[in-house]
Design a protein that fits this description.
This is Putative dihydrodipicolinate synthase. InterPro entries: Aldolase_TIM, DapA-like, Schiff_base-form_aldolases_AS. Pfam families: DHDPS (PF00701). The protein has 322 residues and is of the alpha/beta class. It has a single domain (21-256), classed as TIM Barrel (Alpha-Beta Barrel). Helices cover 44% and strands 9% of the residues. Strands 1-8-7-6-5-4-3-2 form an 8-stranded parallel β-sheet. The chain is globular and about 50 Å long. It starts with 20 loop residues before the first strand and ends with a helix.
Amino acid sequence: MTSVTATAATPAGTLGPALTGVVPPVCTPLTPDLEVDVASLLRLVDFQIAGGVDGLFILGSSSEVAFLPDAHRAVVVDTVLRHVGGQVPVLIGAIDMTTLRVLDHARRAARAGCAGIVVTAPFYTRTHPAEIERHLRGIAEQCEAPLYAYDLPVSVHSNLDHEMLLRLAADGVLAGLKDSTGDDAGLRDLIVARNDAGLTGFSVLTGSELTVDNALRMGADGVVPGLGNVDPHGYATLYAHARAGDWDRAASEQERLLRLMRIVRAAPAGRMGRGSSALGAFKTALHLRGVIDHPVTAPPQIPLDEAETAYVRQILVTAGLL
């Protein structure tokens, strides 16, 4: 297992060693009555750690953070941090619409002893780039935990400016970035600019789980893969091959994971949204693998039906995971 970096004792304003490796965004198991399924969450965390991951990211997109009330978020934070007990770093998403709402989540995460806080740009309202920078600086100033920016234009509807990110890194405001833009050219440009500026402590993690081998070869520090919930060992294997410079084996493992990722196509677009299909498929796969008790997703997402569940099962069988 690769060592990861910044601990809860690293204050904002200090750029320490870069976070590296496989850091899955952990799903949030739910009971049929839509409470957090604590027993399943504990098994899922153990499943990730046993799979060789280097850290955990809770309350991210694959955690259904946008669907969870504050009380559910608190249960997830307390449960995971208490159970992990420092075995691996735990990043916590403080994702909400505006600065004051984000600060409420971020302060609680910092008090709980997380290894880092993850935030997006503000959303719902139209936000100027200068306001995004003010948002990030304000959070870092008030929360004593390393701050990671999350570039998620599909949901936030704006990309994070690379010059701003590196300026904030140089000022000790940001410890790193999760890049979920899907823009490989932009990612490469950011990595080159970071290296040219000597900001090697600024961690660049890709959220594009189907091109991880390419991102690592370009110099990314790690990956935050939603599919890692289902097959953490696969991503740990891919990362190990990349670290060893065995790019042929890394590519082979990436292609295996690409085939496994076809589970997200379980439901037709005319029946539900892409997010419902993907998160439903992840949870269905975890349920079929015996990791979580129920494949329940938060409303208004539509659950997979029997035929769609059978589709997920067949892909798991083909992948040797059942």
